[in-house]
């Protein structure tokens, strides 16, 4: 433990020791967060680079706080990586869709546009109806739409699976009433 008036100073030797102690752990954390391990080493290397570049402004009273900071940096870097990856996927899907539309005959394009508008209106109507449900029913239905199992929903909401089934049934009955005119 470092005395209260002292802090960990990050110099080359300290960084080397910290790197040796935490690189594998942080790489594992990044791999688990990303769901793949190919990018995890690069992300953790960037975390250590940020640590080195910002060392003058950083003060840690003990190694536990430094470790927490490294885990947080790693988690944030993973989130940024996932956002960039998802943005690229969306852009690629959008381009593929536009290419597909350009290859279609004109009457097919009009039918596709009408279908997309109808789908968008349906989603907006369903979303508005979901917001009118009681909180627990809404939570269960939203998690159900994310393809969570009853057990996963129950664990997440800290209720029984029977309650999940009950909330789901009541919510679906309410949605049928609200959306019956569609």
Query: What name does the CATH topology of the largest domain carry?
Result: Rna Polymerase Sigma Factor, Chain: A
| DSSP strand tally | 0
Number of helices: 7
Mean pLDDT over the residues:
82
Give the class from helix and strand content and strand pairing.
Answer: mainly alpha
SSE succession: HHHHHHH
Pfam families: Sigma70_r2, Sigma70_r4_2
GO molecular function: DNA binding; sigma factor activity
Protein name: RNA polymerase sigma factor (Sigma-70 family)
Organism: Dinghuibacter silviterrae
Structure report:
The protein is mainly alpha-helical. It has 2 domains: 12-86, Rna Polymerase Sigma Factor, Chain: A, CATH 1.10.1740; 117-179, Arc Repressor Mutant, subunit A. Helices cover 78% and strands 0% of the residues. The protein has 7 helices and no strands. Residues 1-5 have low confidence and may be disordered. Residues 125-175 form the RNA polymerase sigma factor 70 region 4 type domain. This is RNA polymerase sigma factor (Sigma-70 family).
Features:
Arc Repressor Mutant, subunit A, RNA_pol_sigma-70_dom, DNA-binding, Rna Polymerase Sigma Factor, Chain: A, mainly alpha, transcription regulation, disordered N terminus, 7 helices, transcription, 2 domains
Brief rundown of the structure:
The protein has helices at residues 12-34, 40-53, 63-103, 106-131, 135-145, 150-157, 161-179. With 182 residues, the protein is mainly α.
What is the fold's blueprint, element by element?
Layout lengths: L11 H23 L5 H14 L9 H41 L2 H26 L3 H11 L4 H8 L3 H19 L3
Helix pairs in contact: 1-2, 1-3, 2-3, 4-7, 5-7, 6-7
């Amino acid at each position: 433990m470092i005395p209260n008036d002292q802090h960990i100073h990050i110099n080359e030797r300290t960084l080397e020791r910290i790197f040796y102690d935490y690189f594998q752990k942080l790489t594992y954390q990044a791999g688990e967060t990303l769901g793949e391990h190919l990018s995890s080493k690069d992300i953790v290397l960037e975390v250590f680079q940020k640590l080195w570049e910002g060392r003058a402004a950083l003060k840690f009273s003990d190694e536990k706080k430094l470790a927490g900071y490294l885990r947080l940096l790693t988690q944030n870097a993973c989130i940024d990586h996932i956002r960039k990856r998802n943005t690229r996927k969306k852009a690629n899907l959008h381009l593929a869709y536009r290419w597909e539309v350009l290859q279609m005959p004109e009457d097919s394009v009009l039918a596709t546009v009408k279908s997309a508008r109808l789908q968008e209106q349906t989603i907006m109507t369903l979303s508005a109806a979901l917001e009118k449900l009681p909180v627990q029913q809404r939570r269960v239905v939203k998690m159900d739409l994310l393809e969570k199992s009853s057990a996963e929903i129950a664990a997440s909401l800290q209720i029984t699976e029977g309650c999940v089934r009950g909330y789901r049934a009541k919510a679906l009955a309410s949605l049928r009433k609200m959306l019956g005119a569609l």
